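Give me C-alpha cells for this 490-residue protein.
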Amino acid sequence: MKKITTRNQNYSQWYLDIIDVAELAENSVTKGSMVIKPYGYSIWESFQKVLDKMIKDTGHKNAYFPLFIPKSLLTKEAKHIQGFAKECAIVTHHRLKDSPEGVIVDPESKLSEELIVRPTSETIIYDTFSRWIHSWRDLPLLINQWANVVRWEMRTRPFLRTTEFLWQEGHTAHATEEDAEEETRKMLGVYKDFVENYLAIPVISGLKTESEKFAGALRTYSIESMMQDGKALQTGTSHNLGQNFAKAFEVKFTDKDGKEKYVWQTSWGVSTRMIGALIMAHSDDAGLIVPPKIAPVKIVIIPIYKNEEEAKKVLEVAKTIQEELRSVDENILLDQRDYETPGSKFNEWEKKGIPLRIELGPKDLENNTVTIARRDTMEKLTVASPELKEKVNTLLSQIQTDLFLKAKKFREENSYEIDNWDGFKRHFQEKENSGFVYSHWCGSETCEKEINDELQATTRCIPLDQKEEVGKCIKCSGESKKRIIFAKTY
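Here you go.
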C-alpha cells in the first residue's frame, strides 16, 4: 500500500494521501471535479441520514428544483449575481452533430436564452415560491433540497473546493423579520449540533462581516472549525436574506388584515466540504479516523486462522459475535476476504479509520476472549467474551468523546488574543500554525482588506457568545466593542 506523507513533512500532501489510501475519492477526467468512491460516498450517506432527520425534525420538507437556471432569473437580484458571476457554468447550445473534424456543437442549436448550471438555488426556488405563497396561511414555508451545484473553480482540492460538489440547501419564507432571524439562528444551531456531536469537531458560531456575507443576504452566520494545521474551515453557513430576494421575485403574501406584504427569507447549507473537515480534524499519519457516530462501519471483525479446521471454528464464533453486536449497531462488518495475512486487513481498516477492530483467533477461543483495537489511540485490549457487548458500547462512546475533547484542546492551545499591530503582524508572518487570533476590529472593510492583503489572514466571524469589550482596532486603532477571529483559511 502507498505510504502516507506525514503531517509534519507536507500537510497538503498528507491530506491528499489520506483520501487516496482510505479510498474516499479520486480526480475525474473532468477538470476540477472528483469521483467520490463507494467508501467516501458511504460517509456522505451517513452525514445525509443524520442531518436529514435533524432538518425534518425542525419542520422542513424535502423537494427538488431544476439544475438549470435561466440567465434572466439569476440576474434579478443584483448583489447575488455579482457574487457568483465569475463562477458560473453556462449552457449555450442544446445539440451536437457530426462533422469531418469529429463531433462539434451544432451552431443552429443555440438557445434563445442561456441556462446557468446552478451555483446555488435561491433564484430558481424563489421564482417558484412566488407561485406557492399567497396568504399568511402558507407561511412559514420550510423547504430543503439535497443536490449538486457547480462553481467554476480555478484551484481545486478534493472535498474542500471542487467545480461540482454535493450539498443540502435550505430555503424558507416567513411573515416577519423576527421569524426569519429565529430560523437563521436555529439552523445554525442544528449545524453546530451535528458537527460537534456527530463529527466530533468543535466549532465557533458567529456573524460574518459585510464583505464575507453571502451575496444578497442581510446577515450571514457561520460555524468555524480549526484544522490540525491551524487553518480555519467554514463548515456551515446560515443566511438571513431579509426581503432582497422577495422583492426581486415578487414573493408576497396577504396578511390577516388583508394587506399585501413581502416575505422574509432565509437560506442555509452544508456540503461535502464536511468530509474534508473530518479528515483534517481527526486523522493521523496512519490514515483516516472516523468518529463512531458517523462511521459507515463502526466495527470490523477479523478472523485469524491457519487452516480449514481453525477457520471453521473461528468463523462460527465470529458470526455469533457479529449478530450479538448488531444490537449495539447494525454497521458491523465481518471481513472474510482471503488475504495472505491478517496484518494486511489490519492495515487496510486502519487507513479507512474504522473506530474498532475485533481480532479473533484460536487462542481467543481457548481463553474465551477477544482482542479489541481502538483506531484513535491504536491501543489493544483483551476482553472476556461475556463482557464484549458492554465493552464495545463503552469504547464507542469513549472514542466519540475523546476525539471531540482532543480537537477542542488543540483549538484552545492554538487560540490567541493579540492587541497590538506589531505582535499581530509578527504572529501571522512567523508562526506556521497561526491558529485563531482574537483581536479588536473597527468594522472597516478597508482595515479588513489591508490585513488580508498583507498577511493572508481573513476575518472568520464575530463570535456570538462573546461579551462586549471596549478596545482598539488591531489595524487602525479605531474604536471597537468586540473581538473578531482572524485566521488563515482554506
